[in-house]
Amino acid sequence: MAETDEFKGQVAAVTGGAVGIGFAICKLLTQRGAQVCILDLDEGKAGEAAKELGEWGLEGRAYKVDVTKEATLQKARDAILKDFGHVEILVNNAGIYPQASLREITVEGWDQMFDVNAKGVLLTTRVFMDPMIEKKYGRIVTIGTIDAYNPKPTTPHYAASKAAVLSLIKTFAAELAPHQVLCNGVSPGAVATE
Predict the structure, then answer these.
(1) CA 185 vs CA 107, 172, 188: distances in Å
(2) Of 16, 36, 53, 173, which is the most exposed, with the fewest CB atoms less than 10 Å away?
(3) pLDDT digits (tens, 9 = 90+) for 162-190
(4) Cα–Cα distance list, 77 to 84, 130, 133, 149 (Å)
(5) pTM reported for the whole predicted model
(6) Pairing mode, if any, of strands 181-186 and 138-143?
(7) How far apart are the first and last CA of the chain?
(8) Is the CA virtual torsion 81, 65, 70, 156 positive or negative?
């Protein structure tokens, strides 16, 4: 059961919503009255997260996406629009955090980091912004990290990808504000999740 109705009537899509920070965001949004769409690469975990919300009297639905593939994001957005008719909130949370020193980083590892953490944010925002622009209302929150400001020796590619995300957030905010779509970033520190 919702604790408040702050987001009543609104639909929220959360990437990487099946576990960790993403699932905590899903839970909070549902507690505040939103219908939550759990977007995750792991369809099984997304389903389990939706079921867990249901056990608490909250509502969430699972959708399989790969944030590096625009087609899967479009498919999920279209399914959400079919299921609910609208989407007002997007949380760009999906990300990866492998650690490696400068000598250990491979080109493939670098590319994967930027594909998920930076390109994923760009593609997801681009896919979900249109229904918000059309409605002249939307909220996009992107999860960054303090590592973008203060990188660690074992995370140079992670920190660089998240620094790119900070720049994207500023671009989103400038481009989408005239359409009443507000864009913000949150930069947490270390969080004890799986």
Answers:
(1) 28, 10, 10
(2) 173
(3) 999 999 999 999 999 999 999 999 988 77
(4) 10, 10, 14, 32
(5) 0.94
(6) parallel
(7) 27
(8) positive
User: Comparing C-alpha atoms, which of 18, 59, 20, 12 is closest to residue 41?
Assistant: 18
Task: Give the CA distances from residue 1 to residues 35, 74, 93, 132, 148, in Å, rounded to whole numbers and listed in that order.
Answer: 12, 30, 24, 27, 37
Helices (H), the chain: 20-31, 43-55, 70-84, 107-114, 120-135, 156-176
**Quick one: which of 100, 132, 129 has its CA closest to 113?**
100
Of 19, 21, 29, nearest in space to 60 by CA: 29
**String of b and e for 1-15 (b: at least 16 CB within 10 Å)?**
ebeeeebeebbbbbb
Choose the catalytic residue: 63, 137, 149, 158. Answer: 158
The answer to whether residue 158 is catalytic is: yes
Amino acid at 55: E
User: Tokens 């939706």 sit at which residue?
Assistant: 50
Q: How confident is the model at residue 118 (pLDDT cuts 50, 70, 90)?
A: very high
3-state helix, strand, coil split of the chain in percent (to 5) is: 50, 15, 35
Least Cα distance to 35 among 57, 14, 12, 19 occurs for 12
